[in-house]
Amino acid sequence: MSNKPSLAKxxxxxxxxxxxxxxxxxxxxxxxxxNFGFLPIETPAIENLSxxxxxxxxxxxxxxxxxLNSGNFLSKCSEDDFKKGxxxxxxxxxxxxxxxxxTVPFARFVVMNRNDITLPFKRYQIQPVWRADRPQKGxxxxxxxxxxxxxxxxxxxxxxxxxxxxxxVFAKLGITDYDIKINxxxxxxxxxxxxxxxxxxxxFCVAIDKxxxxxxxxxxxxxxxxxxSTSAQERTSExxxxxxxxxxxxKFLANSEVGMKGVAEIExxxxxxxxxxxxxxxxxxxxxxxxxxxYTGCIFEVKVNNVKMGSISGGGRYDDLTGVMGxxxxxxxxxxxxxxxxxxxxxxxxxxxxxxxxxxxxxxIALDDDSRKYAYSTLASxxxxxxxxxxxxxxxxxxxxxxxxxxxxxxxxxxxxxxxxTSGKLSLKNLNTGEQVSKEINEVIDLxxxxx
Amino acid sequence: MSNKPSLAKxxxxxxxxxxxxxxxxxxxxxxxxxNFGFLPIETPAIENLSxxxxxxxxxxxxxxxxxLNSGNFLSKCSEDDFKKGxxxxxxxxxxxxxxxxxTVPFARFVVMNRNDITLPFKRYQIQPVWRADRPQKGxxxxxxxxxxxxxxxxxxxxxxxxxxxxxxVFAKLGITDYDIKINxxxxxxxxxxxxxxxxxxxxFCVAIDKxxxxxxxxxxxxxxxxxxSTSAQERTSExxxxxxxxxxxxKFLANSEVGMKGVAEIExxxxxxxxxxxxxxxxxxxxxxxxxxxYTGCIFEVKVNNVKMGSISGGGRYDDLTGVMGxxxxxxxxxxxxxxxxxxxxxxxxxxxxxxxxxxxxxxIALDDDSRKYAYSTLASxxxxxxxxxxxxxxxxxxxxxxxxxxxxxxxxxxxxxxxxTSGKLSLKNLNTGEQVSKEINEVIDLxxxxx
Lengths: 452, 452
Hints:
The structure is a homodimer.
Chain A: H1 16-35, E1 39-40, E2 46-48, H2 49-52, H3 57-63, E3 66-68, H4 79-84, H5 86-93, E4 94-98, H6 103-112, E5 121-130, E6 142-151, H7 157-173, E7 178-184, H8 185-194, H9 201-208, H10 211-225, H11 230-241, H12 246-253, H13 257-273, E8 282-284, E9 295-304, E10 313-318, E11 332-337, H14 339-348, E12 362-366, H15 369-384, E13 389-391, H16 398-407, E14 412-416, H17 418-423, E15 426-430, E16 436-439, H18 441-451
Parallel strand pairs in A: 1-5, 7-8, 12-13, 12-14
Antiparallel strand pairs in A: 2-4, 3-4, 5-6, 6-11, 7-9, 9-10, 10-11, 14-15, 15-16
Helix pairs in contact in A: 1-7, 7-13, 8-13, 9-10, 10-11, 12-13
């Protein structure tokens, strides 16, 4: 009869230790978002497929988790549909899906609440998303995104603040050796202009996006197949090989108006950044393209040096996120922290504080039945004073109770036996040092509140 | 081309104001759970249907949201299956579902981590759950549960601590006029024994559970149809009409061993409760049955007086939650706060603090381009000192900027024009009082940090 239970593929449980570490990351991200004037919203996990489909490309549509209609889900589906296969059946049996990211639900939120929200609207959102991807190391089917976006302003202050926020969060988390790559879609457009390949911006981006993986030569081969001229390939090769300064890029783009505008935007952003951080991790990288097609201005991506891991944060400016939902012309800029990858990086670099397990401070141990009864009021006093405490609930051997405290990361035990309850002097033992002292309950409370 | 976007039926967005109020509730619940030694875990939203199905009765199985298999979801499904209908098709096209509560995933977690967790294991869990219920006022298809459970101990201290925690949380939230109804499954078993209807405990519970809705007479009619004797009906009628004291119940149950054990358990729990709260909201109510079949000892339910609302918290002891997953004999006790109902109660009673919107403290307003550049470093200084602040990002009329601050609940503005930036004395205005003072940036920071 008994079933051996299992987790669904690509999903995870988080126990108390992992939760403490994750909450450490969430806390610093949330504090920073708030410090910069962002307010939280939440949207439902379940969205209508009409909202989700067609926003992430064909591949994205495939990766959406679809929810079966309730009740007689086959009622709209004919034998004919069934014979035609999945594409004919799908929209007859499923109308809802799980959100794929936080950006499309945010766009829906803005459109539906356009009359209530005050522009510029700054929101942050920390929730799980789901993708029916093939699970592999570091890639899950259910994972958290932490997004912050501003819509309703073109100000480049927003771009600078993204860099400020990234640097603040990583400083708080102890991540120091990383680059914030910055580029601008207008620069990429300008480059294709200069290369005499106007309109082939997407082909160009797709190709150079892979330079880290396949190398310059293969990138040029790919460009050739897309109709880029030999001279365009040669000039691309130069662009990709060198560590280009902004001045080099300016020379290259001198005759492209849009390209020069992209450079000017980056210059202004970096100028603002200087006001907050004397040195910055931001580095211009014209090979940065980012997959999503909706970016129109600056784009960002964060890579940790010396750790094998994809980008741990990224974002950019988009000019028409809500247009497809009937609200055109709303400019916005946003970015996201990849908490699962940040977790893995911090784990590898051993950056989690030891005390992060926000555990019970004190385990009360009663040595006999009368002491147990006495301990109830001790426990009540401790908790009223916000000392996180518990009483071992059963009669047990001292060794077992101390093991319980140690496994749970509880630093102190308070022993109550006949002597203690008749004298009112309780035995407080520090499990790390082994030191034991005799204290009245108020003294115990004062001591514990000082330590934490 | 444009689609008017909509929310999926029975789901909700939470804007910044609602988030602040919800977080106020979550914070006090979490603080209390931690204060009592509970540690957090999280489980995935998606579970295998093999874990979920058969745990909530037939109705529950119907209300599970099922997820369509990815890719060629029809591949295992024959034309024959299709002709047979939903029941033949379902397990061919869907293997996963959304969690229906936090109890079954917790049981799965305990079984799968049995070798790593230390008993007694105290966990809390705050996550959304999904039910394909017909949406109506106060009932949603996606809603949060806040559960705390202890497994691996029979100690009645746990039951007493549930009452302690309920009273602590409601005191912090400002909810004062409520009852914690307490009963014990053993008492219900004892009553059926005394009534000469042993084994008909479920019929009895189902019937008396409705007494508030249908009245004593109808309850007795229902008992008649279930084969309860006339004298049993008469004695039930007496039980339901009176406001019975524990002494009355003892007299009634005097000859039932199991019934008297139930009474003794409640007495011990209430005795322990006294140590923490001189007066308690706990009241014995033998009509309390609670639907779920797995309870075996004390059961609890909280009702707010003078507000039309179902129970806002409830729970009880179960003796074999993990048995069906191959780990028998693990006793546990747990309870849950219904955050959505608590929200509605607090809203109706106007209990949310006005300052709960954890908003930006200060809006910086620059009057010209040079002042804007000056303001960047002001902004950086404010944020380094953890003053939650923002700079209005665009050139705009003063009125518009002040409206922005007011709508967002920002209490102060800091005005920077030519005078301010040349003198270093910035104009700080309190938007509530209208008072305006001239201060250096360090003074501004000190002032704002005192206020918050």
